[in-house]
UniProtKB/TrEMBL annotation:
<dbReference type="Pfam" id="PF02321">
    <property type="entry name" value="OEP"/>
</dbReference>
<keyword id="KW-0732">Signal</keyword>
<protein>
    <submittedName>
        <fullName>Transporter</fullName>
    </submittedName>
</protein>
<feature type="signal peptide">
    <location>
        <begin position="1"/>
        <end position="24"/>
    </location>
</feature>
<dbReference type="GO" id="GO:0009279">
    <property type="term" value="C:cell outer membrane"/>
</dbReference>
<dbReference type="InterPro" id="IPR003423">
    <property type="entry name" value="OMP_efflux"/>
</dbReference>
<comment type="similarity">
    <text>Belongs to the outer membrane factor (OMF) (TC 1.B.17) family.</text>
</comment>
<keyword id="KW-0813">Transport</keyword>
<dbReference type="GO" id="GO:0015562">
    <property type="term" value="F:efflux transmembrane transporter activity"/>
</dbReference>
<dbReference type="InterPro" id="IPR051906">
    <property type="entry name" value="TolC-like"/>
</dbReference>
<keyword id="KW-0175">Coiled coil</keyword>
<keyword id="KW-0812">Transmembrane</keyword>
<keyword id="KW-0472">Membrane</keyword>
<keyword id="KW-1134">Transmembrane beta strand</keyword>
<dbReference type="GO" id="GO:0015288">
    <property type="term" value="F:porin activity"/>
</dbReference>
<dbReference type="GO" id="GO:1990281">
    <property type="term" value="C:efflux pump complex"/>
</dbReference>
<keyword id="KW-0998">Cell outer membrane</keyword>
Length: 440
């Protein structure tokens, strides 16, 4: 019922030019934005998410490039140029002769090399590219979850501002009615002009607070508009039913287990560990021999031995074997470093598990605490409202002073605002739990 009243008020608030001075001064439209639409727009329009998706595409291209290393290497060469006059000495460096030779030389070559065995370098390079592609996908999911939680925090703050506007607007209306009664009592000579002045001062402060709240709503709406790629002049209207939804909360052990299995940041660390282990295999493959099949064909002019001005074609097929002996001592420290990096990544995984347990416990306790606070503040709001009613009647019968009445009014205002904050905290801590298990 209360949620329906809040929604009705917001609709009236946004459709009234007098309700929001900032909107009255500049042309602006309103947009109702549900939580589902907010999260969807984050996935489609947020620049950080778009950047992560580009990184995914780049990783996919690197994976395709790595697979190309299994194909044969083919090169075609062309060499042509002016051939200088050769000089031949038949007896030492005396009696030089200059035989006839062509003025131009040409050389056409085709070389083919097919890797047969590279010690596992190709296989592990392809696996590394695939792991990096999967890591990019997980990083996108992790960043998207963090951004969604941050946007939900802004979204809930916007709702609190609307609630604050509603409370202040109602308080101003009551203050205006109260000021009329006080002026009537002043005209009757029951009270002094001091109470009138203090009431007017309180009303002025409330109107300034309302104007500040209006500006905060415009600023918060613009920030969300910009981050979601919307028209920044749009005035956003949050979904008030968000706070009324019943949310089931499971046990601490359930959330810790789910986070270990589904949280993208945890899975990303697993992938980083696999990449580190794969790098050890790449370093070890550098210590193994390489075997390739080779084929070559060369068409050259003139004949290199006789310098006869004619074409000579030669071809060959063979096997190329090489063993990097120097790698036995040059790559030893790199291999040791790669193994230490594996230990480092296992350490990072353990640290992440500790962080998850602390984050889940904190969010779970804060969630339950916020639920208890809501129940307690509901009673506080009723008590503060009753206290204000009593103080108002006592003041009008001159059984209390104006200070007591204003204190009771401020106490009621603070109780209502604290209740809204507690309600938004219930929603926020619930989404924190969802983020911790990778379901946001």
């Amino acid at each position: 019922m209360q949620s329906r009243h809040i929604r009705t008020f917001i609709v009236a608030l946004l459709t009234s030019s007098a309700a929001l001075p900032a909107c009255a001064q500049t042309a602006c439209d309103t947009l109702y934005l549900s939580v589902e639409e907010l999260l969807s727009k984050v996935s489609r329009s947020h620049l950080q998410v778009a950047a992560d998706r580009l990184k995914e595409q780049m990783a996919a291209e690197r994976a395709k490039t790595a697979r190309m290393s299994r194909l044969p290497s083919v090169s075609v060469g062309l060499r042509a140029g002016y051939l200088g006059q050769p000089i031949v000495w038949e007896n030492g460096l005396s009696h030089a002769t200059r035989p006839d030779s062509p003025d131009w030389q040409q050389n056409y070559t085709v070389d083919v090399s097919q890797p047969v065995y590279q010690g596992g370098r190709i296989k592990y390079s392809i696996r590394k590219a695939d792991l990096e592609q999967e890591l990019a996908r997980l990083q996108t999911a992790a960043d998207e979850g963090d951004i969604r939680l941050a946007m939900l925090s802004r979204y809930l703050e916007l709702f609190s501002m609307y609630k604050q506007h509603m409370v202040l607007d109602r308080k101003i209306a009551e203050s205006e009615r109260r000021l009329k009664d006080i002026r009537r009592l002043k005209a009757e000579g029951v009270i002094t002009n001091n109470d009138v002045l203090r009431s007017e001062l309180q009303l002025t402060d409330d109107r300034l607070a309302l104007q500040e709240t209006d500006n905060d709503i415009r600023i918060a709406s613009q920030q969300i508009d910009i981050l979601l790629g919307l028209d920044e002049r749009l005035l956003l209207m949050p979904d008030t039913a968000l706070l009324a939804d019943e949310r089931h909360v499971d046990s601490y052990e359930y959330y810790v287990e789910r986070a270990s299995l589904a949280d993208p940041s945890v899975l990303a660390l697993h992938k980083q560990t696999e990449i580190a282990e794969n790098n050890v295999c790449i370093k070890q493959s550098a210590l193994r021999p390489s075997v390739s099949l080779t084929a070559s064909n060369t068409l050259a002019r003139p004949v290199s031995r006789t310098m006869a001005d004619m074409y000579n074609n030669a071809w060959n097929v063979g096997v190329s074997v090489s063993y990097p002996l120097s790698a036995l001592y040059t790559d030893r420290h790199q291999l040791r470093e790669a193994r230490q990096n594996v230990q480092l990544m296992h350490n990072a995984e353990e640290q992440k598990q500790q962080q998850i347990r602390m984050a889940v416990q904190s969010a779970l306790l804060r969630h339950r605490e916020a639920i208890s606070r809501v129940e307690a503040l509901k009673l506080s709001v009723r008590q503060a409202s009753e206290n204000y009613r009593i103080m108002y009647n006592r003041y009008m019968n001159q059984l209390a002073i104006l200070t007591d009445l204003l204190d009771a009014d401020n106490l009621r205002l603070n109780a209502e605002l604290q209740l809204t904050t507690a309600r938004t905290q219930v929603a926020y801590t619930y989404y924190e739990l969802q983020r911790a298990v990778g379901e946001l």
